[in-house]
Design brief:
Layout lengths: L2 H17 L2 E3 L2 E4 L5 E5 L17 E2 L6 E2 L23 H16 L4 E5 L28 H19 L5 E9 L6 E4 L4 H8 L15 H7 L3 H6 L4 H7 L4 E2 L9 H5 L8 H6 L9 E9 H4 L4 H20 L6
Parallel strand pairs: 3-6, 3-7, 7-10, 8-9
Antiparallel strand pairs: 1-2, 2-6, 4-5, 8-10
Helix pairs in contact: 1-2, 2-11, 7-11
The chain binds 2-acetamido-2-deoxy-beta-D-glucopyranose (2 copies).
């Protein structure tokens, strides 16, 4: 591909961004025509200077009872009460292009939701309240303007879901730097559970209600194995496009020792909150894609990869969600 093609892709992405509205200064929403959502929470570097920066929480001696406040005078305890603050660089460009590919492939615009404030000021992929101790959690750390943006972001997802007829799916786009050059697909199963699945120790069927794709499992009666590693899994479709996935077919080629030594993000707050796991009858599935640094930081790989992920996700949707196009 030529540099002109890259410029064209970039122009396409910018063009889409400019053409659509904002829910607020910090939440950009491109309305969709189908039950597919692409969300991009960690790609922005826009940092409102009047906002306090998020920081580690303060612990109440036992280490579990963390209290997060960006403005309190308590002493942060980064060991017991850590927080995430890295920008997932280039995930906005990639995510917007993924949505464009989905639109081309499915012929309909997916919903796109982009947080336009830097993660060091607000993390919408974390809770804002700790449901166990009722205290402020990592996300907005008790800062009211950040909390209001958080509510807009999650309120939009809830609104899309409430108007959905039938099943749908959310793809939450993130970036990691695990140096494994593989896209980590998070379905809310931990790596040790995926190891047990692959090693035949546990088929995870008793745990299927944990899965971010629960409504799909219920609908199709597919096994957890099929959904994570089968011929129509998202990981298989992505590897067919030339990029490694975890879990994916290449995972099956690894030795047990290699597999157990990997780093893996299994899906976060948005996938838990808005996916079918807790959806009380609303049939929106959710999966997290953690894109590796090897790809995000390469200006030549980014457009190729965005095409690949867009195609893989479209293949997955076409196979398992035929309802969305009728
Ligand atoms: C799913 O599997 C269960 C158990 O084998 C069976 O009773 C049920 O009819 C199946 N449902 C569908 C939709 O195939
Ligand atoms: C990462 O994987 C992609 C796809 O296979 C490949 O093109 C690229 O060269 C790899 N990057 C590194 C640093 O290994």
């Amino acid at each position: 591909m030529t540099w002109k093609y890259h410029l064209m892709l970039l122009w396409g992405a910018l063009h889409v961004v400019q053409a659509h509205e904002f829910d607020s200064e910090f939440v950009q929403y491109i309305p969709g025509e189908i039950n597919v959502i692409v969300s991009i929470p960690h790609g922005s570097r826009s940092s409102p200077t009047s906002w306090p920066s998020r920081r580690a929480g303060c612990s109440n001696t036992n280490g579990y009872d963390c209290f997060y406040s960006s403005t309190s005078s308590c002493v942060p305890d980064p060991n017991s009460c850590s927080y995430g603050y890295f920008t997932d660089a280039f995930t906005e460009d990639i995510g917007i292009e993924v949505a464009n590919v989905v639109k081309q492939r499915l012929g309909k615009q997916p919903h796109v939701l982009i947080l336009k404030v830097a993660r060091k000021k607000l993390d919408v992929n974390r809770p804002i309240f700790n449901s166990y101790n009722g205290k402020y959690d990592e996300g907005a750390q008790g800062f009211a303007p950040a909390q209001a943006v958080y509510d807009k972001y999650h309120g939009r997802l809830a609104q899309i879901k409430s108007q959905m007829m039938g099943r749908g799916i959310l793809l939450d786009i993130h970036g990691q730097a695990h140096k494994q050059n593989s896209t980590e697909l998070g379905y809310l199963f931990r790596l040790d559970q995926i190891e047990d699945l692959i090693n035949g120790v546990d088929n995870l069927e008793t745990q299927r209600r944990r899965c971010g794709l629960l409504s799909l499992l219920d609908e199709t009666n597919a096994s957890v194995w099929d959904m994570l590693l089968g011929p129509n899994s998202l990981g298989k479709y992505l590897e067919d496009q030339g990029f490694k996935a975890l879990p994916g077919p290449s995972t099956l080629q690894m030795s047990a020792a290699t597999l157990s030594g990997l780093n893996y993000f299994n899906g976060g707050h948005t996938v838990k909150e808005h996916g079918s796991r807790y959806s009380n009858g609303k049939q929106m599935d959710a999966v997290q894609a953690e894109i590796p640094g090897e790809i995000r930081w390469s200006s030549s790989l980014r457009p190729t990869y965005a095409q690949a992920l867009g195609n893989a996700f479209s293949d997955f949707v076409l196979h398992f969600y035929p309802n969305i196009l009728v």
